[in-house]
Amino acid sequence: MKLIAALTSPYARKVRIVMAEKKLDYQLELENVWAPDTKIQESNPLGKVPCLIMEDGSSLFDSRVIVEYLDTLSPVGRLIPQGGRERAAVKCWEALADGTVDACIAIFLENKRPEAQRSADWLDRQYNKIKAALVSMESGLGDNSYCMGVNYSLADIAVGCVLGYLDLRFAQIDWRSEHPNLDRLYKKLATKPAFVETAPPIA
Ligand code: GSF
Predict the structure, then answer these.
(1) pLDDT tens across 76-92, in order?
(2) Ligand 1 contact via 45 beta carbon (within 6 Å)
(3) Which pTM was predicted?
(4) For the chain, what percent of residues have pLDDT higher than 70?
(5) Whole-angstrom Cα distance, residue 6 to residue 57?
(6) What are the distances in angstroms from CA 155 to CA 7, 57, 141, 179?
């Protein structure tokens, strides 16, 4: 398997952490999807990473589809419950975390536009989503060890990737002091080899 990714992409980081936790071998191919000569659309018509190229050459995207597939490849360290409410709950945590990243990226891209073209209303709307999502994650986690209670799952990986992305691109958001439960979870996740190995480069 080959994973087309970018080192700063939180969605790709989620996939790479799942690969590491499942002890799956793969080749990492870095792609700058914003470069004019990017070939990403040959693999993903949407022009986005992460994109997984399977043994038969076919591709799989997006990150949620990829991690769901990877979890079926090996019984090592199941990250998504097989069915029922628990499965839906993990997927909902993932949707919340990925949706928070979507809002972060919308802000990041908006801020790349010339200042006169930026919409303050649009930026506010995205910041509000991030704020509300952090509140929701904080209360959903509560005093539990992990998002789903006692078991480490894809929910924690997805949440860890958002928090890492906030540190990378939104250092001005002091999420730690307002969200002590998330701080406690992140400290624990940050010691895991899969998180250490995939930490985004500081740039
Ligand atoms: C989002 C992927 C994405 O936006 C997923 O895989 O879960 N729902 C998708 N990737 C960004 C890179 S990043 O900021 O993580 C991307 O490839 N953007 C290029 C574009 O044209 O939007």
Answers:
(1) 899 999 989 999 999 99
(2) no
(3) 0.97
(4) 100
(5) 20
(6) 21, 29, 10, 17
Q: How far is the CA of 24 from the centre of ligand 1 (A)?
A: 23
100 Cβ inside 6 Å of ligand 1: no
State the distance from the centre of ligand 1 to the C-alpha of 161, rounded, in angstroms.
14
178 CA distance to ligand 1 middle (Å): 28
**What does CATH list as the number for 2-70?**
3.40.30.10
Task: Indicate if the alpha-carbon torsion angle 152, 174, 109, 32 is positive or negative.
Answer: negative
Domain spans of the chain, in order of start: 2-70, 84-192
* Residues pairing with 30 in the sheet: 5
CATH 1.25.40.10 is held by the domain 84-192? no
- Distance between Cα 144 and ligand 1 center (Å): 31
Q: Which residues contact 151 (CB under 8 A, 6 or more apart)?
A: none
Which amino acid type is present at position 151?
A: N
Q: Give per-residue pLDDT as tens, 167-195.
A: 999 999 999 999 999 999 999 999 999 99
Closest atom of ligand 1 to CA, residue 15? 6
pLDDT at 203: 63
96 lines ligand 1 (CB under 6 A): no
